[in-house]
Amino acid sequence: MIFGSYDFGDLIDEFDYNFADGAPQTRRIPGVDGGFSDLGDEAAETPPGSLTLGFWLVADTRSEMDALRDEVRALEGYGLQRFDYTSLDGALGTRHCFARVTSTRMSRIESKHTNLHQKVSLTFEVPDARWHQDHYTSWGLDDGFILSDGKTVGEGALETAVSGVETTFSVTQPGTALAIPAISVMPGVGESCENPKVQRIANGLVADEIAYTGTLSAGDELMVDGKRMYAALNGGNAFGPDFYYRYPSLFRLQPGPNLVRVRFANSGDAATIRFWFEKVYR
């Protein structure tokens, strides 16, 4: 496990987190049994997360331990950092969240030789209580690619060519929790599309939708990213009377297969739609 640049090593004996907890959203109604749920039939919302990690510091000599303790106490000053967790099953890969240290406990008990082996307990606050794992993501500058080797921005996306008044396809989110994707609608050379709508269909109904009123010509790009509450047309703010979204997160992907429907105003309309998203786990 790694927090920022600090590697906890192999001497970990406690690891716990509450990412599967839900926050009750049901209120009592006077004179009625039970209560009213503000969430309808949606899953319970997850409160800010807490993660506990217990591990050991081991020193070859007693004089080395204070330096190791100082290094651990300095973690609280790191602020919000990436926390990487690699499963014992290597095939599952590495998941990450973003956390900050809120409590550091190191009890010094000289009779138990804590100057040679010191037990440490850290508590982390995790604002977004989910584990994330790379899936359809953009290339980073540290991926090892040469910038002139033909890689293009967006090559890491799930791309689908859509055309006509309606196109449906499936997008699979392999995790166990909701994922919030970034979505791009961009006509290619010789293409255009009018009044694009991107919808997620669940049980025959529209569960999520983003829509733009207007025409996208070749090279125009409508970019929507619910994680950043970002919507832009060619880099400019798209929020306003011409942009519609159905849900506060703009667009969601449920665990497993998701039926996506793209609608245009005309039979000759065409564009490429791209999804960027991570595997997300509780």
Number of helices: 1
Number of domains: 2
CATH class descriptor of the largest domain = Mainly Beta
Q: What structural category arises from helix and sheet content?
A: mainly beta
Order of helices and strands: EEEEEEHEEEEEEEEEEEEEEEEE
Amount of helix:
under 10%
Structural write-up:
It is a single chain. This protein is mainly beta. The chain has two domains: 2-129, Elongation Factor Tu (Ef-tu), domain 3 (Beta Barrel), CATH 2.40.30; 147-277, Sandwich (Jelly Rolls). Helices cover 4% and strands 47% of the residues. The protein has one helix at residues 62-73, and strands spanning 2-3, 6-7, 12-17, 26-28, 35-37, 49-58, 81-86, 94-105, 117-126, 131-136, 158-163, 166-173, 182-186, 192-194, 197-202, 205-212, 215-217, 222-225, 230-233, 236-237, 243-245, 256-263, 270-281. The strands form five sheets. The protein has a seven-stranded antiparallel β-sheet with strand order 2-1-7-8-9-6-3. Strands 10, 11, 13, 18, 19, 20 and 23 form a seven-stranded antiparallel β-sheet that branches. It has a five-stranded antiparallel β-sheet with strand order 12-22-15-16-21, with no helix packed on it. It is elongated, with a radius of gyration of 24 Å.
Which short descriptors sum up this protein?
single chain, mainly beta, Elongation Factor Tu (Ef-tu), domain 3, 2 domains, 7-stranded antiparallel β-sheet, 4% helix
